[in-house]
């Protein structure tokens, strides 16, 4: 409260200003209507007094008449005095009434008084009475956001959560009246109440009703928005790596056949590759609080060109000399193959260069895959290679070991090496025709350490299938095989 004369901030219950000494009235000035009513009343009383008859005493009246006249004058004077007393009493009562009215007005229309009474009742834990006084403050000043927070707190203390939320909702609904920080605080308090009740679905609906993107971002962990698709509905001529995304952490459940997803459906973890066909994808999101979003759906029609099956240079059949198996496919396609009779996939061996036909029976399956990820039909080739020679692959390996022993590379047939804890191992790889030199077994060298780990070395040996002679196999800059005899 401030001094009306000098503006000095006054302490409570002071009757005089500590700065200028001005007397402090505990009630406000009379309202104009009340002051006007008092003036009208006083004017009426004085007019009535003025109308009283004045008794004139004739000059020629006798003594008795004079005495009677004096008595009459005294009666008139007494009557005037009684009327004056009545007027004064009326003024006194009117003043008292004005004081009472002023005090009542002060109580009903003074914000500091109502707040003080509210805090007084709150200190006595009479929160309903405190709220009643605070609501009067809010009626007087709707911009007083602190009062709304205080009302909500008192409702919360009484565990009257619905009314606490209702009060805070006034701040949210009238956000233009209040500071941004106060509005955010109101959202935070409402969400805290819903959390205390375990009512996360209400939090989701409450936040989704907000048009304030900043608020939604601040509390997005409580929101379950429908999943978003990385591709729009439509027709495509390529494989689609479809991605599903959510606004926060949780799980996305989906189906590809148009059925309604539930918690037994597939959980999205990685892009879904849509190949040729029609897909009706339905999905919904469940956040970490168990709040479910609406189900959303997209339809995709994928129409891709299927590449031609790979072409193989060597037909199936029985062979008595080695051939290189060459495979071709449409441009930009990759070729995958297997040799164990299983169908190839993109995890199978990738064809890089011509393959030497293996000895004995073999089954090759080849598949082409387009850049869009579309697989071709499978090409199958079956071979039986029989060589007209008395030198077997085991004999060829032994020839290599003996040649390296004579060259003082190996110490014995077990492949032991001087100064090494491990030893060499030699394995048959393929049989191939080397232009101008005939047919050779290709033998690869491996080093096995003390733990049994085998590592292929860079050395390759060739054994002539006709005479068993051993050569070192190398390549020139053009990739052509060069033979270096060991003996």
Which helices and strands, and how do they pair?
Layout: H1 32-50, H2 63-109, H3 111-123, H4 127-140, H5 145-157, H6 161-173, H7 180-197, H8 200-208, H9 213-218, E1 228-229, E2 234-236, E3 240-242, E4 244-245, E5 250-255, E6 266-267, E7 272-274, E8 277-287, E9 296-302, E10 311-312, E11 317-319, E12 324-325, E13 327-328, E14 334-338, E15 349-350, E16 355-356, E17 360-369, E18 375-385, H10 393-406, E19 423-434, E20 438-448, E21 454-464, E22 470-475, E23 481-485
Parallel strand pairs: 2-9, 11-18
Antiparallel strand pairs: 1-4, 3-7, 5-6, 5-8, 8-9, 10-13, 12-16, 14-15, 14-17, 17-18, 19-20, 20-21, 21-22, 22-23
Helix pairs in contact: 1-2, 3-4, 4-5, 5-6, 6-7
Description:
- About 35% of the residues lie in helices and about 25% in strands.
- It has 10 helices and 23 strands.
- Residues about 25-30 have low confidence and may be disordered.
